[in-house]
Design goal:
The protein has 172 residues and is an alpha+beta fold. The protein has 2 domains: 2-125, Zincin-like (2-Layer Sandwich), CATH 3.30.2010; 127-172. It contains 6 helices and 8 strands. Strand 6 (101-104) and strand 7 (107-110) form a beta hairpin. Bound molecules: zinc ion. Zinc ion binds at residues 92, 96, 125.
Amino acid sequence: MRFYADKKKNLDKLFEKVESRYFSDNPIRLAKIMYCFWEGDQKQADGRLKIGEARILSLRERDLYGYDFLISVDADIWKGLSLTDKIRLAVHELNHCIVVAAIVKEEWIPKEDSEGRIKIKLKKHDVNVNVFRYEIETCGLYDGERKTLTNTLEWDRQALVRDKASKKKKKQ
Ligand SMILES: [Zn+2]
């Protein structure tokens, strides 16, 4: 396993673009994020290959280097991803990163710890569908899952509509 920064900064640029486009009204904008690639396979807890990872740097690292989060990406897998999938992965990993903040006079003000660092957290996945089709067909979904999936399907539908509309525009 080897970690390295993208010297050409393409990785950083893509994540920063995604951040400014999809997280413009999110206090994550107050955090400093470091990006890097890794080489070599990393497995998730369930044995599947890991593509990306978001973690909080240690207090010492945060103080010394000025970064709060580290987002790392599998270099080989990244190379093979389409732009859409890269954007999706960036949205995914950025979603894990939370800055605890409150809106004061229409502005995000971060909560701070006793030493003046912004308060940050990692968010766990909020859509987990590890179920069998037969299970859903016979018993339906749990309430929380139904709500989340209904919203998710609606977003998906809207995204498809937007996608179609922008393709039409390009053709004209
Ligand atoms: Zn994740």
